[in-house]
Write a structure and sequence with these properties.
With 521 residues, the protein is α+β, with helices and mostly antiparallel strands. It is built from eight helices and 24 strands.
Length: 521
């Protein structure tokens, strides 16, 4: 369309100038320029009115069920002016939610006129793959293509009811200087216990497609109450917005994540592609790795051993396909350790001994990569938690307070760059108050006084397995052959309340990966 309009302008302008100059002479050049400008504007309007997507030939129609038909309008000038010059960076904020730190990204859908809707603050989560907005009014306000799929997720098996459901749509999104074209995302029609309060407006999962599961919108499950609710059989694994963006750019696919370790605005940054290795936080001379990175849904790692001081622990069996995940997850506000490792670390800290906690990862070169933390610094942050049965190992958000990380998607590796200063994050009660867990937890190793200023001993918890893919192994679902094409027709009828059945649901009290953790901050 733009090529045709440019041709019309370029071809008509010289012809009109020659004709008018010949008739009037060069003495009236100012008048000639005015006439030419008006003529070109009229011709441009006529040409545009004949092209697909113009306001003259294609108008957006709002269906009776409230969803928008596909919009092909171009972004408005206002929207373009709001996008920063840096096209490969997204600023991140940090806040406290449910007792622990979270990274937030401001994401704006596009409205029917091509402008940006108010930014929604989403939790940045490398442990999931779906982008889901809490604000259900976006079903009416945003412009998108409809699909025949829904997203449904149920967390916290055996515990308090937590989850959401909503339609999958495909549309344009903006975050920082990055535009996500034709991206699949969900809008929650109903939610319970999700990050949809205290200034948080949803979740942005930036893991791989195996976790971005879609269900048919026309299959309605049969359940009488929230307990035992199930999703229908999953039929698709949709490309997540972040991974789709990286792979659409071509070339090396890199993702850099930085967090200062402090709370507040602009305390973190997400870098795409070359920007991941050309920013101030990347220092190749101090880089650890690259270590081997798996891509079976999660950003999974293989932990060969863990050392706590002079003690060594092995046999973690990191294998996502068998349910033994060892993952790097910004959506978890602590480092979740196997029980025996946690107990060893807790004893050393209780005794006041200085020690190092080290995770040994297989390197791309064959040499082990040692990712180390000072135990006292972790204790001051309240950054360690004790995993329960079925929970393997999670390197949660505190990892990024110590290391800037670069994920090389195409190279299947991850590199760690130690930060020169490791601040202890501070709680910001005005932004978010922790949600008290409804299920009983294990008591702390030793009781702490409520008025205690310094962080006391760790407060362990008992999370259950985090397996967001229902009833199938990662990689077993197909990807749409043409994900960028418009979909056939709207969803049929009102949506039912549908949730994801979490595999390996087990004993009561076993929580989810994003459990409201009793973490000291």
């Amino acid at each position: 369309m733009w090529q045709l309009k440019s041709f019309a302008q370029c071809a008509l302008f010289p012809a009109l100038v020659s004709m008018l100059l010949a008739l009037q002479g060069c003495d009236h050049l100012a008048q000639v320029q005015t006439v030419v400008s008006n003529a070109v504007s009229d011709v441009k309007h006529d040409v545009e009115s004949l092209l697909p997507g113009s306001n003259q030939t294609k108008k957006e129609v709002r269906m009776q069920n409230g969803f928008l038909q596909p919009s092909h309008s171009q972004p408005s000038a206002k929207m373009k002016d709001s996008v920063p010059d840096q096209e490969d960076t997204i600023p991140l904020a940090a806040t406290s939610w449910s007792g622990g730190p979270r990274l937030l990204m401001a994401v704006s859908p596009v409205d029917a006129n091509g402008g940006l809707l108010p930014a929604q603050r989403l939790v940045v989560d490398t442990g999931s793959s779906t982008l889901a907005f809490c604000q259900s009014s976006l079903l009416e306000e945003a412009s998108y293509h409809e699909t025949n799929y829904i997203s449904c997720n149920l967390y916290n098996p055996g515990g308090s009811f937590t989850g959401y459901w909503g339609p999958f749509v495909a549309g344009q999104l903006h975050a920082g200087g990055v535009t996500f074209q034709n991206s699949f995302y969900s809008i929650m029609a109903q939610e319970a216990g999700m990050p949809c309060r205290n200034g948080i407006d949803g979740i942005f999962g930036i893991a791989f497609r195996q976790l971005d599961v879609a269900y048919p919108a026309d299959e309605r499950p049969d359940f009488a109450s929230n307990e035992g609710a199930q999703c229908p059989q999953a039929v698709q694994a949709l490309p997540p917005p972040m991974i789709q963006k990286l792979r659409n750019n071509g070339g090396v696919e890199k993702l850099g994540i930085y967090w200062s370790g402090q709370m507040g605005e602009d305390q973190g940054m997400l870098y795409l592609d070359d920007a991941a290795v050309t920013n101030e936080h990347y220092d190749k001379s101090s880089m650890l790795g690259p270590a081997v990175l798996g891509e079976v849904g999660w950003y999974d790692i293989a932990v060969q051993k863990i050392t706590v001081g002079d003690q060594e622990f092995t046999g973690f069996g990191c294998a996502p396909s068998s349910g033994q995940q060892c993952i790097m997850d910004t959506g978890t506000p602590s480092l979740v350790l196997p029980p025996q490792v946690f107990d060893s670390a807790a004893r050393l800290i209780d005794f006041g001994e200085s020690a190092t906690l080290t995770f040994w990862l297989p390197g791309i070169s064959g040499e082990a990569v040692a990712v180390s933390f000072d135990l006292q610094a972790l204790s001051n942050m309240g950054a360690l938690s004790k995993g329960g049965q079925g929970t393997n190992l999670i390197l949660g958000l505190p990892l990024w307070a110590f290391y800037y990380t670069v994920f090389d998607i195409s190279g299947q590796s991850v590199s760690f760059i130690r930060q020169t200063q490791v601040p202890a994050p501070q709680e910001t009660p005005s932004e978010s108050q922790p949600i008290q867990p409804t299920e009983p937890r294990e008591p702390p190793l030793e009781p702490t006084e409520p008025s205690q200023v310094e962080p006391g001993p760790f407060q362990p918890f008992q999370p259950g397995p985090w397996t967001p893919i229902p009833r199938h192994e990662p990689g077993s679902l197909p990807v749409p052959e043409s994900p960028l094409e418009p979909f056939d027709g709207p969803f049929d009828g009102p949506f039912q309340i549908i949730f994801e059945e979490t595999a390996n649901s087990s004993a009561p009290g076993e929580g989810r990966r994003m459990e409201e953790l009793p973490v000291h901050v």
